[in-house]
Amino acid sequence: MGRFSHAKDKIYSKMGEGTFGQVLECWDREREEMVAIKIVRAIKKYREAAMIEIDVLQQLGRHDKSGNRCVQIRNWFDYRNHICIVFEKLGPSLYDFLRKNGYRPFPIDLVRELGRQLLESVAFMHDLHLIHTDLKPENILLVSSEYIKVPDYKDVSCSKKLPKSSAIKLIDFGSTTYDHQDHSYIVSTRHYRAPEVILGLGWSYPCDIWSVGCILVELCSGETLFQTHENLEHLAMMERVLGPLPQRMLKRADRHVEKYIRRGRLNWPEGAISRDSIKAVLRLPRLQNLVMQQVDHSAGDFIDLLQSLLRYEPSARLTAREALRHPFFTSNRHWRL
User: Fold this and answer.
1) Residue ending a domain, choose from 44, 61, 88
2) Residue 276 lies in a domain
3) Eight-class DSSP state of 259
4) What CA–CA distance (Å, rounded) separates 89 from 40?
5) Which segments constitute the Protein kinase domain (predicted)?
6) 255, 305, 317, 325: which has the fewest C-beta neighbours closer than 10 Å?
């Protein structure tokens, strides 16, 4: 397309790369602003995901008049079989911010502000009968790149960075599905995948809520809650952190997952692939202990919220709208950021 070649000399830098392709920072001459252009690999499945993303972004844009919930699409075009999507330029992802900050946790008051916005964006999508299915810190972007430095009370010789603004937006809608579509396949990035997805029980809106729970723990601790690459170990980690999986869920498990279950319970540690795997599970603390190690105030409300987001039974999890009414967000006792 002519427009892209015309703007080619205005490519500033590569902002990111993934399996889908790459993202370039560019100057948009027409709008006179910096933009991010996602250039999708010329492969059928990535092109299809890009077309889904464009469709979802346009729908979200029609309903999100303020543009505060999700990244805004400016334009899109097909250039030599590469779908190119032009976005407003935002700051770093929460994951990149944590990584560049030595995986130091965020203060609980910042976690509250980020959590509130995340749940508002998820509630907004769910109201439109859309399920994101790939919520993770990499797909939540700070609006601004600016940060401040503050003393790190755990290591007085160091300072740590905090975002100057807590404003965030959701990105990456290539896996987003409508509520009425087929929900039997595997979704979500491994660490943020809900138990019903692993067990092949079908999934819906609550799979996004599970991911939000995992993300909030990661923001307050600096570390991924379920650092795993294998189903049985993942389920064993869940049991270690959250208690035993309900028998009724294990009994209904898909035949591909049956090998992980023996006599109505998880085949663990017998079925572990290695001793290292068993050690990795044993190293994990219970959820409330993990939070208490990190959070100096609001811990009780925060633990209660997390337990309500990380319930095994999808139907028992809070909805995004219910979560926003939880005392962790509404109580007057909070310190202000």
Assistant:
1) 88
2) yes
3) G
4) 17
5) 9-329
6) 255
Q: How far is CA 102 from CA 151, 152, 265, in A?
A: 14, 12, 38
Q: Is there a domain that residue 336 lies in?
A: no
d(CA 98, CA 217): 13
Question: Catalytic site residue 134?
Answer: yes
**Rounded to an integer, what distance in angstroms lies between the CA atom of residue 228 and that of residue 279?**
12
Tell me the mean pLDDT in the region 194-207: 97
Q: How far is the C-alpha of 223 from the C-alpha of 294, rounded, in Å?
A: 11
Q: Check whether 78 has a pLDDT greater than 90.
A: yes
The total number of structural domains that make up the chain = 2
Q: Is there a single domain that holds both residue 210 and residue 296?
A: yes
pLDDT, position 332: 67
On whether both 105 and 62 belong to a single domain, the answer is no
Place 271 in a pLDDT band, splitting at 50, 70 and 90: very high
What's the average model confidence in pLDDT over 101-111? 95
Whether residues 116 and 54 fall in one domain: no
Among candidate residues 28, 64, 134, 172, the one labeled active-site is 134
For residue 157, what are the contacts with CB-CB under 8 A and spacing of at least 6? none
pLDDT in tens, 130-167: 999 999 999 999 999 999 999 877 777 788 899 999 99
Alpha-carbon gap, residue 267 to 259, rounded angstroms:
8
Q: What is the pLDDT of residue 5?
A: 46
CB 302 within 8 Å of CB 261: no
Q: Quick one: 76 and 129 in the same domain?
A: no
Q: Are residues 73 and 103 in the same domain?
A: no
- Write down which residue in 69, 88, 107 finishes a domain: 88
CA-to-CA distance for 107 and 2, rounded, in angstroms? 47
Whole-angstrom CA distances from 274 to 240, 269, 271, 277, 278 are 17, 9, 9, 5, 7
CA Rg, the chain, in Å? 21
Which CATH number belongs to the domain containing residue 163 in this structure?
1.10.510.10
Range of the domain at 68: 2-88
